[in-house]
Amino acid sequence: MKSFDYDVVVVGLGPTGLTLANLLGRRDVRVLVLEREPEFYGLARAVYTDDEGMRIFQTAGVADEASAQMNLDCTVQWVRKDGSVLAQFNQASRPLGWPVANFLYQPYLENTLEQALDRYPHVTVRRGREVLSFDQDANGVLVRHAECQGTGYGKHDADTDTTTTEEVRAKFLVGCDGGRSVVRTQLGIDMTGTSFPERWLVVDLIANDGIDAFRHLPYFDFVCDPEMPTVSCPQPGGHHRFEFMLHDEQSKEEMEDPEKVRRLIGEYVDPDEVQVLRKLVYTFNAVVADQWRQGRILLAGDAAHMTPQFIGQGMNSGVRDADNLSWKLSAIVHHGASLDILDTYESERRPHAKAMIDLSVLNKSLVSIDNKLAAGARDVALATALKVPGLNTWIREAKMKPSPRFRRGSYLGLPRKMLRGVEGTLAPQPDVRTFNGRHQRFDDALGLGFAVIGYGNDPREGLSLAQRNALQVLGTRFVTVYPTGGRPQGEPGDARLDATDYLDVEDHTGELAHWFTKAGVSLGGTVLLRPDKYVFGTAAKSEGSELVTALLVRLALTPEILSANQSPSPLRIVRSASPVKLEEAR
After folding, report:
1. Which of 72, 240, 520, 523 is most buried as measured by Cβ atoms within 10 A of its Cβ?
2. Three-state SS across 114-149?
3. How far is residue 480 from each of residues 69, 121, 247, 458, 548, measured CA to CA in Å?
4. In whole angstroms, what separates CA 527 from the centre of its chain?
5. Which residues of the chain have pLDDT under 70?
6. pTM as predicted
């Protein structure tokens, strides 16, 4: 049987595929990315990412560079046709370490993600390659691909030269190839949900050189105008997007006519100060694939679920998929973890993705009301709700957004405790203080693998040598979190660090202390985080050993398996502002 050419073949070079390739690349997984379009798209589709997305980009090593090209902390608002504000949505707090509302220009983000792949010699990107077919067995997937002139991003059928067919064998295949997924189609997997008949015209603009054409439109606006519901979206780099809802009698040809577009945007900007980059009438879908995995073949992003654009969560759902999949694939490839852990990919991600779809549909229904009486009733109801203590904060901080919290019994981790349980939820990411007084993001202290956190104690205490060795093979980081002012003070030599996989930080903001208390973790307790920073489990003082045992059981890892899958010179990632370097672990 042919040996493996790659660990993972990723199909599709959109945001989901790019994020997955970067996350796998950072974890030293050998990746081939196949993209049938030979040229970069170069136009915007997604416009938004949230704090969860930014945290994942941080794990991928691109967050600082990507955020430098974003409109951060942008207020979102519902406004009337005359511009008067119905409601504003903004959240000043940053529980995950990043702003909650960030608007982007997708080509900037994709360029950043694709350029970052140059850091990894074990990640290969091949544009202009169409997947023709694939077969899988118990051990891997054989993928056939050929040279392709592309489809013009959906404008025509693929022009593929089958005489250039090549075969590669990989351990896994992940279809990140969008709503028209070739991978999903060849697997025979259907999508279930609703295709909406409402049509919208999207118009992407860029300001003329030297013209500040959009300063009067600083925020993201849902213009709740019953005569023509409109979206106004600020973007970086002098870009701006408008979306206009069509009435039944308005045709695609009429609405895409340059003079019609000029009149529509002329309600908001001076048409002579901008250029139209794109104008397109589209409909949208709210659908989910009936199955996200068949054996060693998986679906992610729009190939698995399609989210209407009304809360900006389509791209972000795909980015979350990539985060969930990447560490599980790495655990299987590098450490021999059970293939069964991939069962939790869909069980963890499907409910959250579906909840985002449902919220998007609800928001669409509210902002696009085209009946004046119904719109008036909506405005009165909203104004009333904003006067109710508690409810007003819930609305203004958009607390209706589905939280990063897995359903009970559906995730890889210990069962959630009935009271104050945090198992299966995303841990916060405050700034922490190092011994030498530097501030850093908590995830940067935790590293890319599992993290065992002791609250005021060394989390290695009570672990057997075999458990320590097993966690080290998994690339686990041991971290002590001291409360503010709680570092050890004593004789010379006390509290010195004695291992490269152990460090201590100080919770100078008090946010972790608050979270530990809320989680029922007292001083001396332990928290075990998965590589995606979701909580695997918590333990009281002196019970950390039970956590580790439970983790190894869930991953189906025995000392024999770990020993067989341990590299003789394991690679570690050296964090720096420059491209990632790989070096032999000391």
Report:
1. 240
2. HHHHHHCCCEEEEECEEEEEEEECCCCEEEEEEEEC
3. 35, 34, 60, 6, 16
4. 23
5. 1-2, 495, 566-586
6. 0.93
